[in-house]
Amino acid sequence: MTKNLGTKQQTLMNIGMVIFVLMWFIPSFALLISSFRESGAISSSGWWMIFTNPSEFTLTNYELVLGSSGIARAFLNTLIIALPATILTVILGAVTAFPIAYYKFPGRISIFILFIAL
Q1: Domain containing residue 20
Q2: Are residues 57 and 74 in the same domain?
């Protein structure tokens, strides 16, 4: 059974979701922009200043990281951990999603919430 929300409630929910998305997106975008600035510029002015002075844009940070000797091993370690974790999560999610979606049993919603929370 679904409830139809009123226009006011729907509007408030949409505004809330937009605020939530912006609260997540702006810091992530700022971090990305800051990665293209030199450390002196990062500590002396805000990330948005790159738009007023595009000459601050630099790839030096990436050259330093990619040129360091241990980056290849670190990347391999990340793949060794991340790939199996992702594959197992997708398989476990698919195996549990089917009975939760198609069978009615007591505690079904609680199990669903538990998996969403994880």
Answers
A1: 1-68
A2: no
Instruction: Name the token pair of 92.
Output: 């476990």
Q: Rounded CA gap, 17 and 34, in Å?
A: 26
Each residue's pLDDT tens digit, 9-67: 889 999 999 999 999 999 999 999 999 998 888 888 888 888 888 888 889 888 888 88
Give start and end residues of each alpha helix (H) in the chain. 7-34, 39-44, 49-52, 60-67, 71-102, 108-117
DSSP letter assigned to residue 5: P
Q: Helices 71-102 and 108-117, interaxial angle, to 10°?
A: 170
Whether the pLDDT of residue 106 is over 80: the answer is yes
* Domain match, 73 and 107 both: yes
Q: Quote the distance between the C-alpha of residue 116 and its chain's center.
A: 16
Same structural domain, 75 and 111: yes
- With 60 as the cut, is the pLDDT of residue 2 above it? no
